[in-house]
Design a protein that fits this description.
Layout: H1 11-17, H2 21-40, E1 44-45, E2 54-55, E3 59-65, E4 71-77, H3 81-93, E5 101-105, E6 110-113, E7 117-121, H4 127-141, H5 157-174, H6 181-200, E8 205-208, E9 216-218, E10 224-225, E11 228-229, E12 234-236, E13 241-244, H7 251-254, H8 266-280, H9 285-303, H10 310-323
Antiparallel strand pairs: 1-3, 2-3, 3-4, 4-6, 5-6, 7-9, 8-13, 9-12, 10-11
Length: about 350
Amino acid sequence: MNQPAAVPIPPDLTARHTRSSAGRAWLASLPDLVQGRLVDWQLTPDLIPGALPWNGHGGIVVPVRQQDGAPAALKIAFPHDEAKLERHALALWQGRGAAALLASDAGTCAMLLERLDGERSLSGVPMEEAAMVWGGLVRQLSLPPDDRPQWFEFEHIAARAEQWSDDLPAEWEQLGRPFPRWLLEAALEVCQTRGAVGRRSARDVLVHTDLHFLNILARPALAAFDGFPTAAGYAAIDPQPMIGEAEFAVAPLLWNRMSDLPLDQPAAGLRRRCADFSSAAGLDPDVARQWGIAREIANALGYAGKPDHRGDLARSLWVASTLAGRTLDGLPSPHRLPEPGEAIGAH
């Protein structure tokens, strides 16, 4: 096999990882990592001349052709805990509801994946139809634990809730009490209640904890049936897997696509979205609402004290307080808040 052509590294991935010594070291090694996987797995880059590979916050995805010409995607992630867990979850799902795992290499955080359509995500699907697709995927992804070794790699959601019970009050004090005490207490009540329930319930499943619209991509030629999107035509990526209540997965839907909320009653629209997506997946809407409060307060404390994340902080506080039933005064309209990952200094 001839030596594959060198794959360019996207500039925004370079900019993101030059901020730390570990990131710079990984970037320096990345061309050789990509080249090594191309050779070992007998892959050919499938990029139009001048085109860049896809990339997210934590890695690069190169469209490739396998030795028999079949399309695939080579993903190499920056080595961190979530990236190391991804292959275990994908191996358990076996392509049902998530991108199929074709090969993996733990040492380089590299995976060969089913190639999905990176230009068609659930973010472009009308909300009612998106709920049906999302609900169908969650039903497929919600595997009950068994004795396969991958299950021992995942953190339990109840343990995360117990950790938050200890950490959130301390962070809130250290950050100068950045929002009212009642909202912190609402999150702590969820952590204590759902943590206890999670420890003693028999409802544990494998949970994709970052199942927002952009992390659901179309399967080429399968995305629609009679013109309507179907769960069979989409697959999840970037799972950030945990074990616990499936309702934990609803929250990322609530802090994304906020511009789609109704202009006249956005708060009611947010709570309705929570209920609609939960119902489509056969989940308990109130449990999903509770987890949304806890997850957004954890996010808010991650943003507080960072001047370049003022918009993200406002978004998290709007979602959390709205789910808790008392939208905080003084926050911007949700339609003026940034989407996660957007530049937010002006908000």
